[in-house]
User: Which sequence fits this backbone?
């Protein structure tokens, strides 16, 4: 019996380099507050594959 495949929801792209990040493993993250409207904000979590990518990041958004 083949092993079950993982859902794409368990992975996301690094906000700096685009490499896949496994969300179930430790990785650096940054939460950025993004204005949606004049009275509304939204928190966006950015994921990074390594501390080096986080250090290189010049965002707020990739």
Assistant:
């Amino acid at each position: 019996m083949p092993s079950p495949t993982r859902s794409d929801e368990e992975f996301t792209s690094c906000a700096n380099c685009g490499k896949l990040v496994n969300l179930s493993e430790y990785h650096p993250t940054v939460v950025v507050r993004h204005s949606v409207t004049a009275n509304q904000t939204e928190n966006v979590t950015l994921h990074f594959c390594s501390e080096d990518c986080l250090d290189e990041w010049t965002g707020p958004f990739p």
Summary: The chain has one domain: 8-56. Residues 8-56 form one domain.
